[in-house]
């Protein structure tokens, strides 16, 4: 089998496309490109069932018709006042804005979930954010070191990353090597080191390859960092916006693209289902979960009429550096074609080749 783990690096660039009409609620859109609220802005009152108050004030567009920028509300998942974030075009910039807002180092942010403070992998912030989504920020908590005996070829892990240099565990297979460690390793744990090798800045597919290359029968150490779950928890209330212009509640998302630009796009149910199927195949063949990569694959397949054209498009793109196997490409094409024509068989568990 050819190497499927090599990948070209991409340097983010560009900024959010602001051509979309602004949100109708003036407190939800500002003309500022900076963080408009921070943890020190004003005294706060904490509550168990409502958000702490947002202290930012809307900045109106200039008389020349300057376009207003979208903003998003966020909190630290283990409890904090509400912050307001705007003026970012990729995930790394988003994390830096969050760090500035709450006066924490960006390096402490592990990942974000949408609309829940809980560590729910189905709610991870990936390649896009709904315009009505509330961001919860999970930061580093307790570190731990686990000794693992690789008694089987597959450890039972699915790995993803936060898009800013941290890989973490998205799923653990039942009755696997890792699951039998009596919950010492948990979903959401950041994989900081394998033995003495630091994984800072290493993409998830590289981490997956390192774990897969460990010989069966070997003993190795995993240094993991749990997300911080201490402190009070804040349950989000229902957040509603009045429909304005052509922006309808829950029908548009802010998507981070591979070229570093971000754009507002309509939610496409066919695309969402296809990306879910592609991600399932990525787990099967590579032991990773990567919505951005799945979205890139969908973009290349969307307007293709046959698998040959799709294969050529893959090979001619930057994804050609992955050297995907022929079986993988064929299975992706079959899955996408099924979704396009409405053939949606029962979901299968892809476990055979997971880590």
Description:
Strands 1, 2, 3, 4, 6, 9, 10 and 11 form an 8-stranded mixed beta sheet that branches. A hairpin with a 6-residue loop joins strand 2 (69-76) and strand 3 (83-86). The chain has helices spanning 91-102, 204-213, 269-286, 291-301, 307-316, 326-341, and strands at residues 29-30, 69-76, 83-86, 109-114, 128-130, 135-149, 157-161, 167-172, 190-194, 197-198, 219-227, 252-256, 262-266. The model is unreliable at 4-68, 232-250 and 346-354 (pLDDT under 50). Helix 3 (269-286) crosses helix 4 and helix 3 packs antiparallel against helix 6 (326-341). The chain folds into 3 domains: 26-139 and 230-266, no CATH class; 141-227, Pdz3 Domain (Roll); 269-341. The two termini are 16 Å apart. It is built from 6 helices and 13 strands. With 355 residues, it is α+β, with helices and mostly antiparallel strands. The longest helix is centred in the last third of the chain and has 18 residues, at 269-286.
């Amino acid at each position: 089998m050819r190497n499927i783990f090599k990948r070209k690096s991409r340097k983010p660039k560009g900024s959010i496309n602001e051509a979309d009409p602004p949100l109708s609620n003036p407190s939800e859109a500002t003309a500022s490109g900076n963080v408009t609220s921070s943890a020190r802005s004003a005294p706060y009152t904490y509550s168990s069932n409502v958000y702490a108050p947002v202290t930012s004030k809307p900045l109106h567009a200039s008389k020349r018709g300057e376009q207003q920028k979208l903003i998003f509300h966020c909190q630290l998942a283990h409890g904090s006042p509400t912050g307001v974030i705007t003026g970012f075009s990729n995930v790394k910039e988003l994390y830096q804005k969050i760090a500035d807002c709450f006066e924490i180092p960006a390096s402490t942010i592990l990942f974000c979930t949408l609309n829940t403070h809980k560590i729910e992998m189905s709610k991870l912030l990936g390649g896009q954010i709904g315009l009505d989504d509330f961001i919860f920020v999970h930061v580093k908590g307790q570190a731990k070191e686990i000794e693992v005996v690789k008694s089987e070829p597959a450890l039972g892990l699915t790995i993803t990353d936060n898009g800013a240099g941290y890989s973490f565990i998205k799923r653990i297979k039942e009755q696997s090597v890792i699951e039998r460690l009596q919950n010492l390793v948990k979903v959401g744990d950041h994989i900081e080191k394998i033995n003495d090798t630091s994984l800072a800045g290493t993409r998830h597919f590289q981490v997956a390859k390192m774990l897969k290359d460990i010989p069966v029968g070997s003993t190795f150490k995993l240094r993991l960092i749990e997300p911080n779950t201490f402190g009070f928890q804040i349950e989000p209330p229902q957040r509603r916006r009045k429909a304005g212009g052509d922006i309808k509640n829950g029908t548009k998302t802010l998507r981070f693209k591979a070229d570093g630009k971000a754009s507002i796009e309509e939610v496409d149910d066919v695309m969402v289902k296809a990306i879910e199927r592609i991600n399932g195949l990525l787990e099967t063949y590579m032991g990773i979960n990567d919505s951005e990569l799945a979205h890139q694959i969908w973009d290349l397949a969307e307007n293709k009429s046959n698998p040959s054209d799709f294969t050529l498009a893959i090979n001619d793109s930057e994804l050609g550096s992955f050297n995907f196997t022929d079986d993988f490409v064929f299975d992706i094409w079959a899955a996408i074609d099924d979704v396009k024509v409405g053939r949606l068989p029962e979901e299968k568990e892809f476990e055979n080749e997971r880590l």
